[in-house]
Every structure is written in structure tokens, then in C-alpha cells.
Amino acid sequence: MRFTTKLATINSKTLISYRFTIWTVLLLLTNVGPAVAEHRPTDLLNDLPDRKWMLVDLGGVTAPLGILAYSGGWYDPDAHQFCIFGGGHYNYSGNEVWCFDIAALKWREMYPADVVTDPPYNGADQGAYNNYDNENYPGALFHPAGEGIADARPMSRHSYDQLEYVNGYGAVAWGGYTWGDSQTPWCNRCMDTWVFNFADAAWTFLYNGKNPSPNEVAGSGASAYSSRDGILFAKVLQETWSYDPKKNTWRKLSTRGNPPWSIEGTLEYDPTHSKLYYFGGNYEVNHTLWEFDIPGRRWQSLQPKGSGPNGESNNGPGLAYDTKNDVLAVYFGGTIWIYDVSAEQWETIRPDVRPTDSSYVFGRFRYDPVNNGFWLHASEDGRHATWFFRYQH
Q: Is the pTM of this model over 0.70?
């Protein structure tokens, strides 16, 4: 939901507070949970055999492949859309959102990317960046500088696993590293929080200067939304945080048995058992599957039977929970490893026809309950590619 005021008499900080208060109050007054939209399975996907991939779209996204650099995405259950945002690194600064209409099997650019007139910082004189005025908006990233925060959109960043759909609100984006060199004077390790509303293709700025996103090095983290608790959980380095969308507040949790310090891992929610799963990560490398019991606030390392993910799979793996079959899927480089939660056992699936992209995936691998399968967005032969995988009917 997006509200804009044209009153020239209010200053920037008042405007931020005004917009956020109205947005929050209306949500609380209506007490609206997620609209339970009814969506039909997509005909083309119905006959896909178990444990098989289907290349559904090739080239539907026309943005440069740089939009995939260290970026993630989300599945919107209300609109039944699979969306991506972020990327950038050195080769693309576009901050647009692309969404895949699963019923129509077509991609759509939700709005044109904002124009960035300055190149990314490359060690040259930083004076050129003085026109990025973030002084009044801690952590906020938008362009052109000086526009009202009501009309702002987040700048492109490595979004990692830091995009999650939150029931009744939209897709929450927090943290990340901006496009270009990580030493850019604006937002090295971003601490802003936004929400994207699909209906009007608009971002709302949530950070109010009092509730920083998880710790001061929140550039790379992982998150998952618990629909049962109405809380977004995040792992940042060796810490565990929660975000309450109703209160717009972040809180560091006191937990037991934390996983080791690492970045570039992925977190996923298991609604059947009220647990989170964490896998992957670098600096230190993590090849252990970790489980977080939400009510007990306790982490524990798992040692499933069978052959688990291989040596490269820690590099930003995809993680998605199949609610119908009660299994967790770990994806990397064309291979899927299925963790059977009840049997505590791995299964490796690598069919002949499969994706070849072995770059970071994060939230661009998501479970679709309507079609009982997993969506992946990556690249093939220099073009954007969208795949669908079904584990079991």
C-alpha cells in the first residue's frame, strides 16, 4: 500500500513518520491477513513427471544478466507470481522488479529501472558522490538524490536471501550490498528495510531511523518468514534476529547453539514443524544443515543419513520447503538434494535435462504450492532462463 502527500509545509522526517503511521494504522485497523486467493494449477505443468525439470521460459526477462549477481527473489502466494530483485555487482545498476505470472507463464517488468547518472565507486575521488544525499535518511537508498522519500525506491543491491514475502504486507527487502564496489560511500552493508506491494508495483520505505536492520554488518544475511508467528527471522553472521512487521521493529534474539559465523547461506521456513533450516555460507565455509526450533529458540546441527550436498553447494544455494511432501530441497548447479524431514535422510536428484548455471541462487529457487513444484530463475546460453522442477505428485 502506498501513500503520498504533496504538502510542501511538512519536512522530510515528518513525512516519513506520517506515511509510516498511516500505513501501519490502516493495516492494524483492517486486521487483514493474506487474501486467500484461489489459483488453478498451470496446465503445462500438470503432466511433468516426478523428479524432472522443465525449461519453461528462455529470454522472457530482458534485463542484463547482471541483475542475477548475488541476488534473490520471492514467491507471492496472493498474486501467484515469482519475482526477482537486486543484483548489480559492477555490470548493472537496474533496481527494477521483474515478476513471472505463473498462470500465464510470462515475465513482466513491474516498473522501469531508475536512471543512475554516476558510475560505481572504483577508487577515484569520492567528491562525485556528494549528490547522493543520504544525510537525512539513514540507510535509505534512492535516486535521484533529494526526492521525497514517499517517491523513493531502493537502489539495486546484492539482495542475497534477504527478500521474503510477508503475509498481508508484501515482499520485505532488508540489508544487502549496493551495486558496484562494496566500498561505495552510500550504503556499504545496507541497514534499510522496504516492502514491495505487487498491486501498485510500489515500494514503501519502512526504516524510520530508530530500528536498524540486523547489526551493523547486515550486508549479507539470510531470512525466512514464519507465517504461524507473523515474524521474519534472519541470520546475520553468528546472530539470529526477528523482524515484526506490525511494529516495524528488529530485535536480536537470545538463542542457543548458533551456527558458525558465515555469509552467503540461505534460510528457509518449515510450517509443518515450526522450524527453520539454514544451509550454505562462506567465510567460514558451511556444509552443515542446521535446524532452528522457533518456539524453543534453539539451533542444532543435523547429520542426515545418505550423501548430502557437494563441495560447491555452500555458494548461495537455493533452499525451499515442499509442504505437500514434507521435504526440504537444496539446489545448486543443476542438482537437487532432498532432505526427508521424517526419515532424516538425503536423496540426490540429477536428471539428464537440468539447469547448467552454477552461480549463486539464494531466493531465486522457491516452492509453488499451487503447482506442487519448485521455480528456479537463472541463466542458460547467455539468456535468462526459468525452470520448474517437481519432486513428487
A: yes
